[in-house]
Amino acid sequence: MDAPRTTDPAATEAADSKPKFIRSRGLRFPYDTRIINRKRRALLHSDTYELKESEAVLSQIRPDDRVIELGAGMGYMSTLMARHLKVRDIHAFEANPAMIPYIRAVHAFNGVDTVRVHNALLGETAGEVTFYVRGDFVASSMADNLGDKHGGVIARETVPVRPVAEAFTEIRPTALVCDIEGAEQHLIPLMDLSMLRVAILELHPQVFGQDGTRRVFDAMAAAGLTYFPRASQGKVVTFRRGW
After folding, report:
1. Domain count along the chain
2. What is the spatial distance between Cα 225 and Cα 61, in angstroms, rounded to a whole number?
3. Which tens digit of pLDDT belongs to each residue from 207-236?
4. Which end of the chain is less packed: N or C, by CB atoms within 10 Å?
């Protein structure tokens, strides 16, 4: 007869306290239900989370690029670039202060130390804005008129705005990765795009319509960046300097 099993309370507590992860593309993401809801969990498990943007980034970003990422989200793209592409110089901007500890945790758990995380927005001039944190952290934004959607507003935070010209002069990026929920129509024309080799954007025409889309394309064309269809899918568009 087998000896009866004994339970070591200390061992049980240690096992229960171990962080749980969702794995995606070989990367590890702490399972925080405020950030990873059922839909995101399924997408992460199937390696289809931000699929179009991921494919563009993996095919177009180079290890020697200096990347500026606007809208860092849960740290997915910056971790993907650092781990899979070995990019050594990434500046990730995220407005939502509730996401910053999670992004840093994602980087730490994946051994990423080449990303500088900025809790700030870029704009024309320096200042501050009110940011509305929602129960679903990823759905937080500067909009205060969404009612109880996405878990409702659970906090109001003051977020600094940095002049975009200052940030570009300081970082001198060669690559831009941008997903900022429609603000790109105003921000892209303010940028000095002349230093970029490539730009990968998720457009939001449902927010700004045809006029906003045209403003983005016109700004890219004026800077010598051409729409690159082979690395574009739907609302994710890529612009390159030279083919």
Report:
1. 1
2. 15
3. 788 899 999 999 999 999 999 999 999 999
4. N
Q: With cut-offs at 50, 70 and 90, classify the pLDDT of residue 158.
A: very high
Through-space distance between the first and last CA atoms of the chain, rounded to whole angstroms: 73
Q: Determine the structural domain holding residue 64 and report its residue range.
A: 48-123+160-240
Look at residue 101 and tell me if it is in a domain: yes
CATH of residue 78's domain is 3.40.50.150
Closest CA to 171 of 185, 202, 192: 192
- CB neighbour list of residue 108: distance below 8 Å, 6 or more residues apart: none
- Does residue 147 fall inside a structural domain? no
Residues in contact with 121: Cβ distance below 8 Å, sequence separation at least 6, in sequence order? 93, 95, 129, 159, 160, 161, 162
User: Three-state SS for 149?
Assistant: helix
Say if residues 163 and 123 touch (Cβ distance below 8 Å). Answer: yes
Beta-bridged to residue 118, according to DSSP, are 93
Contacts of 10 (CB under 8 A, 6+ apart): none
Q: Is residue 211 part of a domain?
A: yes
Nearest to 69 by CA among 44, 41, 45, 50: 50
Give pLDDT, residue 58. 98
59: part of which helix (H) or strand (E)? helix 51-60
**Each residue of 85-135: pLDDT tens digit?**
999 999 999 998 889 999 999 999 999 999 999 999 999 999 998 888 887
Residue showing tokens 């969702």 = 22
Q: How far apart are CA 175 and CA 187, in angstroms?
A: 16
Tokens for 62?
């180079």
* Token code pair at residue 238: 């890529």
